[in-house]
Amino acid sequence: MSGARTPAVVRPPAERDSEITVSTSHALPPAPRVGLRTAWWTAALAVVLLLAALAPASVISDFQFFQLNRVVTFAIAIGGLNLLLGWAGTISAGHGALFGIGAYTTAILVADHGVPWPLAVLASLVVGLVVGALLGLPALRLGGMNLGLITLAIALLLPPLLTRLDWLTGGPFGKTTPRVEAPPGLPFSSPQWLFLVNLVVLAVVFWLLSNMLRGRMGRALDAAASSRVMAAAHAIPTNRITVAVFAVSAAVAALGGALFHLTTRTSTPDSFTFLLSISLIAGAVVGGSRSFVGAIIGAAFVVFVPESLGGFVDPAAAGQWQQVVYAAALLLVIYFFPRGLAGLVRQARNRLVRRSSTNARSQEEQS
Amino acid sequence: MTLLQLTGVRAAYDGVQALHGMDLAVTGGEMVALLGANGAGKTTTLRAISGTVSVEGAVVFDERDVTGWAAHRVARLGVGHVPEGRGTFVDLTVEENLTLGTLARGSRLRGQVKEDLAAVHELFPILRDFSRRQAGALSGGQQQMLAIARAILGRPRLLLVDEPSLGLAPMVTTEILRSLRVLQAEWQLAVLLAEQNARRALAVVDRAYVLESGRVVASGSAAELRENTAVQDAYLGAEQTGRPA
Amino acid sequence: MTELWQQVLSGLGSGFIYASLALAICLVFQGTGAVNFAQGVMATASAYLAWSLVSNGMNFWLALVLVLAASFVLGALIERVFIRPVEGSSPLVMLTVTVALLIGLQAVVALIWGDDPQQLQSPFGGGSVEVFGARLTAQQLGAAAVVLVTLLLAGAFFRFTTLGLRMRAAAQNPASARLLSIDVGRMLALGWGLAATVGAVAGVIFAPTLGVSPAMMDSSLLLALAAATLGGFESRGGAVVGGLVLGVAANLASRYIPGIGSDLQLVVPFAVIFLVLLLRPQGLFGRVSSVRA
Ligand SMILES: Nc1ncnc2c1ncn2[C@@H]1O[C@H](COP(=O)(O)OP(=O)(O)O)[C@@H](O)[C@H]1O
Ligand SMILES: [Mg+2]
Fold it and tell me: Which Pfam families does this chain map to (chain A) (predicted)?
């Protein structure tokens, strides 16, 4: 405990005496860098989904598009959360609230001020960035898990605040905005059109984020997450980076929220409770917090798992079973697949590739 | 009678082999040194014995195969370990640190705690004077004394001591090694002492093993090793080369 | 003036809930390095257990004793089953596990006992007492007394018993503790058990005021986390004092600061923490240990 200056007040005992324990460390393992490969995967996925978007309504119904839109907007938010969980080594228990702030910003601008929705979405992004910076600033001094605590406060305070500030937010009934229609002349239904928009945003955001992580920023974050001491030795300003990353992460979450509102059209205080924040964390961990493909897998988990429970459990208790499933999935992934489902997919693919390449080699040898 | 026997002991850190088949034996009541340069594997050998690193091969203590045992179970059998870095409980008082030592003896020699504490206090008076102080506030040498005192208060039959001289002034080191010798004789304690400073270690121990890259490369009585020119060239010069504090 | 005094005292009353949960959180943190988000819901489970026993006709105090024993076992079991596999992991992994425990256990509680709030009769009756001009219910006073005794007992346990000493040693330097034949794993499980027990005291004894529901401890957990932050996670006494201070502060703020009703009371502790941490990152009472190499 030598460091009076170390901001990480919350330090696990394991770290204190690492000179004796031969640690079988169970930290989130460093996954390979986001490479071109991830970008390709994302792109390929986007193309597949794009084709799906063009499918006629008889193949994919408007309701299914509605669900897919929820997946994509959650995926965007989870991608933002991954910056913290997977790279910055910190946690936000309040991304559901940031998501909600994005949703409400768009809702209010569109409903009360007649702002065109694309501008409103951009405004949500900016609001998210600002709120994120404001929340992240204390991290400059606090670091570590205290950020988690502050974000937890936001998560719990947002719903009562939204209810309270009814002159702005519409109180418990929230805000409803008109349906977003495709530009005249394009043969898309509203959910179809939104799906296209969301996909494009998802692709652009993930592409930008992976570029960011591939550069100096990613290296700095890795150094900072692996060891504050080492980062300090390399003169990496960990706290400033943490604030920047938190702001970006918050902006991305707010962006996801804005698009989510366009899909659901109504935002109420109880859409953005603590459980949403938890769901996003669950999605990030289950999908694999160092992978953007993982963000999409995680979002699908968050949307479809509670859905599929519907048939099996008493509808009155569906919420509880959903929580149980989230909890079980979180624990299973943490214990058995610390890289999440995306890691599992990658592992399986590598094994396939290796097998086929050894097959090829042995055939060559035979001939 | 053989108290400790290592046969073909191998140990690795994250897949990197640190011990490549160590063979070593300690008889009850004798004082043996493990000599070797930095990184030779002295610390790892001690850890292999006390069960704080996982090993292959066989570690037999008092005719019991303790390979793979959890550290606290090995300790309960009567193996004391003064670890590298001293392992001080910095936020506890000196007195509490020593109490933890006496608790380590379990039900053995329970009635003798008071006398043993008195004996230890006589040997290291500073620990009595500072008994209410936070252990973290002691100097390096004082913490080293505390670590040794704590370990022997568990009345082990085998005491593993990892480089007590590290970072200490030569005078202090000599004092500590001498105290160790006194205790060893009085309490019929076998001591396995890891030391980089071969000259000083050979002045107090009965026998020694010389390690290099995780293997025993020489062994013999202290007198023999002092005479052995190869060992002299390789290790007894250590004093002049200067060592990291 | 009396009004203020009244508010201070009743704030202190709820402060005891936060103080005991904060102490529990500290115990767990010092042992396993996990910030236990499930500490509150563990206490909720204890409260429900007590409610079940009492509503089946058992005497309150007998039920309390049984529930405390059960909570101890449950806490130790949770450590063995859920925490052990990730022992020594990064704080992030630990946090994820305790968050999973929080949502899982809360759902299980709701599935077993339902969502509707239940009422537990106060064992102290319906009377009230005058304390220097302020009026306190017997329940308020009695609950505070019971928690106070618990906190003192816990303090004495760590300070004066050899088991307490061994637990402190295991928490502080597990590697070194093992060399002194301390079974660190068992100490950690004991720590969780003890924490669950301390939390259960608060959960059960305050249940008549809080009402028994799956969410009964939600805001208390948050205030307890805030209290632990305020006091410094390393300092058990600090966490307790932090809890009491926050209890009073939150109560005064919701009474005297316009616009802060009970729904936004949570703003207060966080504002306080914010300030404290900016000035003293180690917490109000956290020590910067004097360690020499
Ligand atoms: N915790 C560790 N992690 C990885 N390698 C280690 C660790 N401790 C020691 N080693 C390696 O094991 C070998 C033996 O080290 P050690 O037993 O500490 O030697 P000595 O005590 O003789 O200086 C060295 O090569 C060292 O680098
Ligand atoms: Mg060494």
Answer: BPD_transp_2
* Alpha helices (H) in chain C, listed in sequence order: 2-32, 39-55, 60-78, 91-113, 138-160, 162-172, 174-179, 184-205, 207-210, 218-231, 236-256, 267-279
Rounded to two decimals, the ipTM of the complex is 0.91
Distance of CA C291 to the CA centre of its chain: 30
Q: Please count the residues of chain A.
A: 367
> By CA distance, what is C234's nearest residue in B?
B91
Return the HEC string of B9-32.
EEEEECCEEEEEEEEEEEECCCEE
Instruction: Tell me the average pLDDT across A145-163.
Output: 83
Ligand 1 center–CA B38 separation, angstroms: 8
In chain A, which residue's Cα lies nearest the Cα of B12? A22
Contact C100, A327 (CB under 8 A): yes
Query: How many domains, chain B?
Result: 1
Give the torsion sign (CA, C193, C196, C200, C202).
positive
Range in B169-178, C70-79, C204-213 the model is least confident about: B169-178
B80 contacts in chain C (CB < 8 Å): 179
pLDDT digits (tens, 9 = 90+) for A289-321: 888 999 999 999 999 887 777 777 777 788 888
Contact B89 C176 (CB under 8 A): yes
Give a yes or no: residue A166 inside a domain: yes
Asked if residue B69 belongs to a domain, the reply is: yes
What residues have a C-beta under 5 A from ligand 2, the ion? Answer: B 43
Question: Cα C143 vs. chain centroid, distance in angstroms?
Answer: 14
In a domain, B242, yes or no: no
Number of compact structural domains in chain A: 1
In a domain, B167, yes or no: yes
Which structural domain, as residue segments, surrounds residue A210?
A: 61-272
Provide the chain C residues 44-103 that lie in CB contact (below 8 A) with chain A: 82, 85-97, 99-101, 103
pTM of the model: 0.84
For residue C95, name the pLDDT band (cuts at 50, 70, 90). Answer: confident
**Mean pLDDT of residues grouped by 10 in chain B (245 residues)?**
93 91 93 93 96 94 94 94 92 95 86 91 92 92 92 94 85 82 85 90 92 92 84 58 42
Ligand 1 contact via B196 beta carbon (within 6 Å): no
Supply the range of the domain harboring residue B190: 2-235
Q: Which ligand number lies closest to the CA of residue B48?
A: 1
CATH number at residue B144: 3.40.50.300
Chain segment C104-134, per-residue pLDDT in tens: 999 999 999 998 899 999 999 888 888 878 8
For residue B20, what are its two tokens?
């490549």
Q: Is residue B243 part of a domain?
A: no
The structure tokens 């306190």 sit at C136
